[in-house]
Specification:
globular; 14 helices; AA-Vitamin_Transporters; 304 residues; membrane; mainly alpha
Length: 304
């Protein structure tokens, strides 16, 4: 790993999570007019077009055998993850989904060991994981009762696993040496292609007036240009520099940012339970993210 680029990797991961943690506000507004799959398709079309404008050069692969990596990344990170998450939200509480999705770094660590040649994460990674889960649990359920819904919770677990697969695929793609913007755009392309059957099944029906409404357009631009085009590039850049495991632990911060932004934007009260939850989550993040001294770089040159 190039240590000179490590701060850049952390900054890219933090920017990504900072934006992803606030997207719920835009999504909440748009759900009054659009269905989840309509929002999903529009934001990634916008993101795909934006990446073309930023980098109009066509990506030429060295080998056709590399194409399945991009297809799998698009299927997992764009289509399946968001569809599973959105469907899970129709069955169970958003707080349940938020906690369950946050276990993605655990699965990422396992997949890194199996497919990237990484060593098994040390004790501090798992202690950090437990601390972060305790903090996220306090943030999510501190003011509400725990509600178990097998179908919704199983779908959320599946989404977390799928995101771990995407992060692992992203690391393999970054090892190919292509530009981050071009590889992200190619992933978006396959994600949109795989999304088409879902559009047909879920009754996609969007009018121009819906999209051009000032409030809707501003929120769609935020999701399309910020949360999709920018964030997937910065996330993939972070994975390229830090590795899939160290980048994935930043997911722990999403509930923290959501809580803080809710207080700032929606004026929701922050309880002492939430403050304790934020402290535990951040402690878990820093402990899990920090590589152990005994760990060695994996085959891709990334410390885990």
């Amino acid at each position: 790993m190039n240590h000179d680029k490590t701060p850049t990797g952390h900054l890219a991961a933090f920017i990504t999570i900072l934006i992803w943690g606030t997207t719920f506000i835009s999504t909440k507004v748009l759900l009054e007019t659009f269905s989840p799959v309509e929002i999903l398709f529009i934001r990634f079309v916008m993101g795909y077009l934006a990446l073309w404008l930023v980098c109009p050069r066509t990506l030429k692969l060295d080998s056709r055998r590399q194409e399945p990596l991009f297809m799998a990344a698009g299927l997992c990170g764009i289509t399946m993850y968001y569809l599973l998450e959105n469907i899970a939200l129709t069955f169970t509480l958003a707080s349940n989904v938020g906690v369950i999705i946050s276990i993605a770094p655990f699965f990422t660590a396992i997949l890194s060991c199996l497919f990237l040649g990484g060593t098994r994460p040390g004790r501090q990674f798992f202690i950090g994981f437990l601390l972060a889960m305790a903090g996220i649990f306090l943030l999510s359920f501190g003011s509400s009762s725990l509600s178990i819904n097998p179908m919704g919770d199983i779908l959320a677990v599946a989404a977390a696993i799928i995101w771990a697969v995407y992060s692992t695929l992203t690391k393999k793609i970054s090892a190919l040496g292509y530009g981050t913007i071009q590889t992200t755009r190619r992933t978006f392309f396959y994600g949109l292609i795989f999304m088409i059957p879902a559009l047909a099944l879920m009754d996609f029906n969007v009018s121009l007036s819906q999209v051009t409404s000032p409030l809707n357009l501003c929120n769609l631009l935020f999701l399309g240009l910020g949360a999709s085009a920018l964030c997937f590039v910065t996330w993939n850049l972070a994975v390229k520099i830090l590795g899939s495991v160290r980048t994935s632990v930043y997911i722990y911060m999403v509930p923290v940012i959501t809580t803080v932004s809710s207080a700032l934007v929606l004026k929701e009260p922050v309880t002492m339970t939430a403050v304790c939850g934020i402290a535990l989550t951040l402690a878990g993040l820093f402990l899990s993210e920090r590589p152990s001294m005994h760990q060695r770089p994996d085959r891709a040159g990334t410390v885990h």
